[in-house]
């Protein structure tokens, strides 16, 4: 394997809230290689979005405490001067958020917003930037890019807006693309178009992708590796086949069991996980999942936090790891 | 589950239309056209079944759900509920319809009044319809309803903000069940919930249906969830039901190219399957419902478009091998009303289903 694009080590994020300190991310470590897609999955409040916002310095400074290391091509994003970080966003990292309408400025044309990013990161003439904007809109498959460039966001459909946001994220050919629930607000047919687009661009440019989603179906299609988050911790990670087909952690298993499945529909009730996820201000001692865990097969569950350890045949370059005292061996 | 042919129709739409006027800007605000949100829907909902209604945003599925209950007035066609003409109902009949047909909404954070306790919210329909008269009887009924949806009766005195999304949705379901309805429209009822909580609510809906003999119209963009809960599935595109049939048949062997593309786009959590499968990626965007294409409304994006598509508006006709599986597509034989062009003499009307 070549040197990783991004190396995150022991990332921790605490947020000060009126209800006390929220431990939103608690020791997250992972790497993303060039051309690789890492999916971060979890339910609301699992810390998946905050973990990437922290990398990019997008959390409010006054309330957020971020520790750990995050090396992007060898440079630590977390200790970088704000001025330098601003230079890195764009050519280094592109971001696509869930709702394209909130990422776009409603009173500026699409072209204006695209050229702004281009000109901020290099000496580009107005005309050249505009030409590049038209080219980018064409690349992301917007029909009639020459005219689309002068349109306002409200004149475009949701799918077209998200393409514009992707064009903006890709404007400076970033080494890493972060997609945070980028297709969640879109219809499935549009989602298929967007996923196609990202995969094509990734193949062409060798972009590394962090894809944050709660949709395990999307994960199955795009990810090389999967990281399952719960209560701000990574509870299981490994190749997409290992995690989705041979899940070990009771939470991952519960999540997969709770999913209605078009491919293997049957009449049985869905498995459910009782209760709700823990509040980040009040995480349980021991394993974060134990209050909802159907197994609780070990005396240490309630008191001792299980480490992320290799499970199964494992080893190799992409080991399958889970943080549980109750690895039940292979899943059915 | 019996075959649809033997079943009794509870709710029925024929040629149902909901058109909204499109007005020009400026002072005159002249009506310049119509936004055809629901545009000639023929659909039957059988007593005791769950009918899943799928389609993408803007296809008119929510408007259809609302029109069936006359929450928006239809501008054309008919709706019958248990044999009664919903479009012609007077005040009294409409009130009875409101009791017999309930609705569960998408956002449990928006659909509950934050200033009312759970008990107040759930007992309101009881007061409105004069059910279980007397404070104590109502309180007892509220407790019963809360237990029915899996909530502790002790939560009655609490306010919505004290609950999680899943619990709020249970409160919404309890309220919808208060009038002992026959028919429940669930409009994206699980869309805003986390996966593990979605499963709880889906299981609850299925249990309630069996227990109470409810008829459900389950509107959702989540095809996997729809497949899981539904006996039959109807697929909507641009204001029209374009395919309908037994859930297994529609999910496994969709017959109309749009339904095929839609189903093929649903990602499933199996890496092996996902890698090997051929996704049908549609070109372009859905046309505006203010400018519906002539003939087959899907023809502008259809990979299989051929000569009759722009000229004949297809109607639902039997397709595939499963009984009751219908699709509106000329690939299964050209059936439908010719499009009226400028020249006179073409037959008028949208035509009735061929079934």
From TrEMBL, chain A:
Gene3D superfamilies named among the record's database cross-references: P-loop containing nucleotide triphosphate hydrolases
TM regions (residue ranges): none
Superkingdom of this protein's organism: Bacteria
InterPro entries: AAA+_ATPase (IPR003593), ABC_Ni/Peptide_Import (IPR050388), ABC_transporter-like_ATP-bd (IPR003439), ABC_transporter-like_CS (IPR017871), Oligopep_ABC_C (IPR013563), P-loop_NTPase (IPR027417)
A Gene Ontology biological process term: peptide transport
Gene Ontology CC: plasma membrane
Entry GO MF terms: ATP binding; ATP hydrolysis activity
Subcellular location(s) of the protein: Cell membrane
Keyword ATP-binding among UniProt keywords: yes
Signal peptide range: none
Membrane topology: Peripheral membrane protein
Occurrences of domain ABC transporter (ranges): 6-256
PROSITE patterns: ABC_TRANSPORTER_1, ABC_TRANSPORTER_2
Keywords: ATP-binding, Cell membrane, Membrane, Nucleotide-binding, Transport
Annotated family: Belongs to the ABC transporter superfamily.
Protein name: Peptide/nickel transport system ATP-binding protein
Source organism of the structure: Geodermatophilus aquaeductus
Taxonomic lineage of the native organism: Bacteria, Bacillati, Actinomycetota, Actinomycetes, Geodermatophilales
UniProtKB/TrEMBL annotation, chain B:
Gene3D superfamilies according to UniProt: P-loop containing nucleotide triphosphate hydrolases (3.40.50.300)
Classification via SUPFAM superfamilies: P-loop containing nucleoside triphosphate hydrolases (SSF52540)
TM stretches of this protein: none
InterPro entries membership: AAA+_ATPase, ABC_transp_ATP-bind, ABC_transporter-like_ATP-bd, ABC_transporter-like_CS, Oligopep_ABC_C, P-loop_NTPase
Keywords: ATP-binding, Nucleotide-binding, Transport
Molecular function GO terms recorded: ATP binding; ATP hydrolysis activity
CDD domains: ABC_NikE_OppD_transporters (cd03257)
Domain ABC transporter: 22-263
GO biological process: peptide transport; transmembrane transport
A Pfam family the protein falls into: ABC_tran
Family: Belongs to the ABC transporter superfamily.
Protein name as it appears in the record: Peptide/nickel transport system ATP-binding protein/oligopeptide transport system ATP-binding protein
């Amino acid at each position: 394997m070549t040197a990783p694009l991004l190396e995150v080590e022991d990332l921790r994020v605490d947020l000060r809230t009126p209800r006390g300190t929220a431990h939103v991310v608690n020791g997250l470590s992972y790497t993303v290689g060039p051309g690789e897609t890492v999916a971060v999955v979890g339910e609301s409040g699992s810390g998946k979005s905050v973990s990437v916002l922290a990398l990019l310095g997008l959390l409010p400074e006054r309330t957020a405490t971020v520790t750990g290391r995050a090396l992007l091509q060898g440079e630590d994003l977390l200790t970088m001067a704000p001025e330098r970080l601003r230079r890195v966003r764009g050519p280094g990292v592109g971001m696509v958020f869930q709702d394209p309408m909130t990422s776009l400025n409603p009173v500026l044309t699409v072209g204006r917003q695209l050229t702004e990013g281009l000109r901020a990161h290099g000496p580009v003439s107005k005309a050249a930037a505009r030409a590049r904007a038209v080219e980018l809109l064409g690349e992301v498959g917007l029909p009639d890019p020459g005219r689309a460039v002068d349109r306002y966001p409200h004149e475009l459909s949701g799918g077209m807006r998200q393409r514009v946001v992707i064009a903006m994220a890709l404007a400076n050919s970033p080494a890493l693309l972060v997609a945070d629930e980028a297709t969640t607000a879109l219809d499935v047919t549009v989602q298929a178009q967007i996923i196609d687009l990202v995969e094509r661009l990734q193949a062409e440019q060798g972009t590394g992708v962090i894809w944050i989603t709660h949709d395990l179906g999307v994960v199955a299609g795009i990810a090389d590796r999967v990281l399952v988050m719960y209560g701000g911790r990574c509870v299981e990670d490994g190749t997409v086949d290992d995690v989705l087909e041979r899940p070990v952690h009771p939470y991952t298993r519960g999540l997969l069991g709770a999913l209605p499945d078009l491919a293997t529909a049957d009449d049985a009730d869905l498995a459910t996980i009782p209760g709700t996820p823990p509040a980040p201000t009040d995480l349980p001692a021991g394993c974060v999942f134990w209050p909802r865990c159907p197994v609780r097969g070990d005396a240490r569950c309630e008191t001792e936090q299980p480490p992320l350890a290799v499970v199964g045949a494992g080893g190799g370059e992409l080991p399958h790891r889970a943080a549980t005292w109750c690895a039940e061996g292979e899943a059915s | 589950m019996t075959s649809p042919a033997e079943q009794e129709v509870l709710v029925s739409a024929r040629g149902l239309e909901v058109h909204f006027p499109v007005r020009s800007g400026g002072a005159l605000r002249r009506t310049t056209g119509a936004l055809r949100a629901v545009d000639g829907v023929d659909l039957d909902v059988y007593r005791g079944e769950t009918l899943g209604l799928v389609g993408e945003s803007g296809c008119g599925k929510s408007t259809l759900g609302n029109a069936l209950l006359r929450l928006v007035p239809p501008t054309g066609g008919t709706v019958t509920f248990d044999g009664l003409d919903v479009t012609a109902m007077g005040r009294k009949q409409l009130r009875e319809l409101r009791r017999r047909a309930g609705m569960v909404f998408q956002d449990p954070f928006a659909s509950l009044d934050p200033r009312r306790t759970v008990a107040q919210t759930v007992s309101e329909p009881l007061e409105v319809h004069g059910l279980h008269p007397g404070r104590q009887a109502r309180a007892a009924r509220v407790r019963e309803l809360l237990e029915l949806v899996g909530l502790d009766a002790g939560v009655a005195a609490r306010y919505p903000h004290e609950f999680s999304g899943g619990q709020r949705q249970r409160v919404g379901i309890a309220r919808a069940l208060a009038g002992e309805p026959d028919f429940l429209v669930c409009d994206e009822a699980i869309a805003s919930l986390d996966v593990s909580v979605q499963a709880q609510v889906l299981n609850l809906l299925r249990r309630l249906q069996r227990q109470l003999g409810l008829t459900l119209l389950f509107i959702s963009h989540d095809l996997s969830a729809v497949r899981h809960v539904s006996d039959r599935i109807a697929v909507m595109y641009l204001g029209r039901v374009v395919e309908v049939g037994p859930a297994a048949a529609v999910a496994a062997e969709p017959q109309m190219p749009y339904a095929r593309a839609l189903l093929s786009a649903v990602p499933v959590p199996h890496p092996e399957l996902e890698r090997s499968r051929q996704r049908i990626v549609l070109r372009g965007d859905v046309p505006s419902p203010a400018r519906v294409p002539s003939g087959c409304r899907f023809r502008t994006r259809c990979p299989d478009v051929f000569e009759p598509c722009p000229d004949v508006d297809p109607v639902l006709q039997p397709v595939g091998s499963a009984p009751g599986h219908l699709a509106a597509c000329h690939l299964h034989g050209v059936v439908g009303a010719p499009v009226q062009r400028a020249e006179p003499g073409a037959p008028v009307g949208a035509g009735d289903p061929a079934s």
